[in-house]
Design brief:
Blueprint: E1 2-7, H1 12-28, E2 35-43, H2 45-50, E3 55-58, E4 63-65, H3 77-83, H4 107-132, E5 147-149, H5 150-155, E6 161-162, H6 165-173, H7 187-207
Parallel strand pairs: 1-2, 2-3, 2-4, 3-6
Antiparallel strand pairs: 4-5
């Protein structure tokens, strides 16, 4: 059993690696069932992971879905003009300045981004179809990026049953005592990690270009 708490999404690559590993282990140990338990949110990349499980349990008020791909950046061209700042970018490779936030976006750039997002989106759809199989109604419109409550997600075939972590452990697995094997960092390591991750994300978001990648 694995638990998805407040998971709004993330990297397609990392979600795919986890999904692949769960599927591999299920093939290696077919007699050991794998259950996913959703608590607050299981959206996008988190749902990509969840569909590797045999059964997905949710709370009636959980947020589930968001099947899609997104990429965002900023444009600062007018700000540079108003400030009188000249942008100097030196590259080798015709498209190396692709998505530079200090240059106007071209139609070619936008077409390329859209084609990448479309490709990643279809990969996501295939993984969900493989994981959920015939539990997805043929006419269910679940691949539009929306999220639903846990109760509604069961009706749409995105999840299987209502159930908490304790319920699944006690009633489904038959293990009344939960054991959390998550590695725990000490306080100072947690603090340093959070500060570093926050600073890195802010710098990447500000600079754009090299710091931008598709995400779920």
């Amino acid at each position: 059993m694995f638990i998805l708490d407040s998971c709004p999404g993330g990297s397609p690559v990392q979600a795919g690696r986890i999904n692949d590993e769960i599927v591999r282990l299920r093939g290696q140990y077919p007699d050991i069932p794998v259950y996913a338990v959703v608590e607050d949110m299981c959206a996008s990349g988190a749902y990509y992971i969840a569909v590797a499980a045999e059964q997905i349990y949710v709370d009636k008020a959980s947020m589930v879905g968001s099947i899609g791909a997104v990429m965002s950046t900023f444009g600062f061209t007018e700000a540079l003009d108003k400030l009188g700042v000249e942008r100097r970018l030196y590259t080798a490779g015709e498209q190396k300045g692709f998505l530079d936030p200090f240059l106007p976006a071209s139609e070619q750039d936008e077409r390329h981004v859209q084609s990448m997002l479309d490709e990643i989106y279809l990969q996501f759809v295939d993984v969900v179809r493989d994981g959920r199989g015939d539990r997805l109604p043929e006419d269910a419109d679940v691949f539009n990026g929306l999220i639903w409550t846990g109760e509604r997600s069961i009706e749409l075939g995105l999840a299987d049953e209502l159930g908490s972590t304790e319920f699944v452990a006690r009633e489904v697995i038959g293990a009344p005592e939960l054991v959390d094997y998550t590695p725990r960092l000490d306080f100072f390591s947690q603090f340093a990690e959070r500060i570093g991750a926050s600073a890195g994300a802010r710098i990447a978001a500000f600079l754009g270009g090299e710091g931008v990648s598709p995400s779920f």
